[in-house]
Input
Amino acid sequence: MKTHVKALVVGGGAVGTGIAYHLAKFGWDDVMLMERDELTSGSTWHAAGLLPLFNMGYATSHIHDYSVKFYKTLEEETGLNAGFSVVGNLRMAQTQDRMDEYMLYASTAETVGIPYEWLTPQEIKERYPLVRTEDLKGAIYHPTDGYINPADVTMAMAKGARQRGVTIERKWQVDGYDWAGDHWNVTVTKMVEKGGNLVPSDEQMVIAAEHVVTATGNHAQRTARLLGLKIPAIPVEHQYIVTEPDPALVDWRKDNPEHPVLRDADAKWYVREERGGWILGPYEYGAPARFAYDVPETFRADLFPLDLERIEEEYMSMIHRIPSSETVGLKDDYNGPICYTPDGNPLVGPAPGLRNMWLAEGFSFGITAAGGTGFYLAQMMVEGEAEIDMASLDPKRYGPWMTTEYAVTKNEECYSHVYILHHPDEEREAARPLRTAPAYDRQKAAGAQFGQVNGWERPNYYGPKDAPDSFDHDARSFRRGGWWQYAVEEAKAIREGVGLIDATAFAKHRISGSGATAFLDWFTCNKLPKVGRINLTYALTDAGTTRTEYTIVRLAEDDYYLVSAGAWAAYDGDYLRKSIEDFMAAGGDAVWASEVTNQWGVFAIAGPKSRDVLKALIRDADPETALSNKRFPWLSAREIELGMCPVNAIRVAYTGELGWELHHPVEMQNYLWDRLMEAGASHGLKLVGARAQNWLRQEKSYRAFGTELGRDATPLEADLPRFVDVSKAFRGKAAMEALGVRSTCVTLLIDGPEDADPWGREALYDGETKVGRLTSGGYSVAFGKSIGMGYVTPALAVPGQKLKVRMFNQLWDAEIVGDSPYDPTNERIRADG
Ligand SMILES: Cc1cc2nc3c(=O)[nH]c(=O)nc-3n(C[C@H](O)[C@H](O)[C@H](O)COP(=O)(O)OP(=O)(O)OC[C@H]3O[C@@H](n4cnc5c(N)ncnc54)[C@H](O)[C@@H]3O)c2cc1C
Output
């Protein structure tokens, strides 16, 4: 066996094999794949092999789309038939809400280029007479979708990988990882058969691998322990049953091609044809998590016993939908572990805190995702970045606060939620509240309806006080939900009076040391602020795209306070720490970084009356002048005292009104809250949630991280040249300039449907031509219509350009407006007093 390799891929399931294949395809000629048992002996062997293209996420849609196209090429390349049946996929809707969901999903499909068509109940009946249609509203049909034989496609990828020089070693288990500064020393143990079990022998070796990728499926918890990491990939039981041949189906098939896969989302199942019968795969409630700490040695390519009772409801609903299935008996059943993560997306990308260690864990649609994951992860490893933004899959989206019990609870929830209505304003209930700032109870008492960001509870909007627990659930919609009017009132309050937003979840880092200034000057693309001032700036990837957006406050000559998006604390912190290591290794002076997210609460007060509210609490200075433009100009930071609370106040407002962010010691949060409420009462201070804030920032064209800003666009493409100082050298600069501007970020006002706003997933058209996509959407109280931000072909990115937005299957008028359509000269933010 080789003892030195460029990359070692651990795990010979569909995912590991897809990665090994693509690393070789991208040009790495020294790749080894190691499997403790046989290829496909994990979850891969018993998967049903469906390849659903339906996906609400942009990155995952690309991944699935790549896989489906790639699998079709494998036979020609390897001579092995991967058993791909392109039978189409018919997703049925029993309710109008479900049709709305499909129409929103179709927006994502359209932006990615996935074909689909709409069928009425009558058209379904005409094409597929075995399906009962009286209680259906319609369906979305994917002609290019289907199913594949999971073992065959894995073997075809393995053969393709071997043909490209990959070595595959079976019956070797990875048992230890040691970082040696520029490579990993990986300890591997020969596995032997003993009494039907697979056990480690005494034979061990050490392999030096420049890069390691783990794709260990159900063994992710063991991998996590070996690496000293937390990986929230824990499997849940998933069953499917196979029926005897259905005579009606056999008869129909005499004159017809194979039946498309059926999905009755409202009944929580998929069904596909299998040798004249049906496979029913339900996503039922109550499926338990398994192997929360480890996979027992006795469990190999095994299954759990069938729990028919748990899927009885889904079974009965299959009989309802396909009446001919009532009389056919059961032939076979499978109940196996299917890996999940708290949000259902796999964990793909660099491991936190480690170098050259890549994770590909937690796949619940691993057969569908294997090819695309292989492609985009290999691209990231070999070329430095993937062409799509993989942040939504990044392993660092969960911070160190995550525990096994949290993962178990959320993964079970995620499994049972596969077929719920995926409202874009959905907030999942399990494992909450968990991370709460002190003011949580006060906010709740005031009617707050919370969302969760990185585990933190953050008010989305304030509904009625004493609302029933079901209020937010019932308020969700694909259109304007029951919360919409509350958000409108909140947005108006900030535009006309004063509002208070809890922004405690912001990620916060302190950077200091004699090298801090030189480091940040290289790490970020804008000029650094002077002491007491702040700047908005970006850290770029080496590929020149946006890795993180920071508000930088310069507290002293070599002391900085960095604020970034709340959802990304671990993701940002990891890049920061690794970049500091690189900087110091290259001879830079000492830099210290510490995450202070949990030490500082943040309230953002905004609106024309915000100064008046704060004046009432200022004790240590003349309240009449302390907040004036002269003493506290826009984009500056000051330490002020609000009653007995010391506050680092920053004069910025993400809403585009006069305002301050009040960064305060978190233990004084309730004190400060109470004082602000008292002082605000006479000015009509209103509590405001994240939804209204998201609308308001679009009126100012403020880009948001994770939507307009990410690793698929440069700050120049985000149309932010004023925050890029091209006169200095900074990380990613040459790559950014070489990329040019491929598409441009714009703001649009939209004349959409009367009862709906865009969600930021919709396709943009110029006549018949698709020219871009929305990345954000919402309602503008200032303009009294829908608003959105997105990316279009650069030539079209001019104010006044008329476009169309596809919403609910219709094209609606939209017009590109100049940056910051509301208060373009920032008069309101700069208001003196
Ligand atoms: C009943 C059922 C039906 C399913 N149907 C579908 C479907 O229709 N479509 C779909 O896309 N997905 C489906 N899935 C999910 C799919 O099976 C998984 O997502 C997929 O198989 C995951 O592949 P993987 O390579 O990540 O993991 P696995 O296939 O589990 O492979 C991981 C491999 O890593 C090896 N390994 C672990 N630790 C080590 C180590 N230390 N050293 C060496 N080797 C190691 C294991 O032996 C194993 O072979 C289904 C799952 C179930 C349970």
In short: The chain has 20 helices and 37 strands.
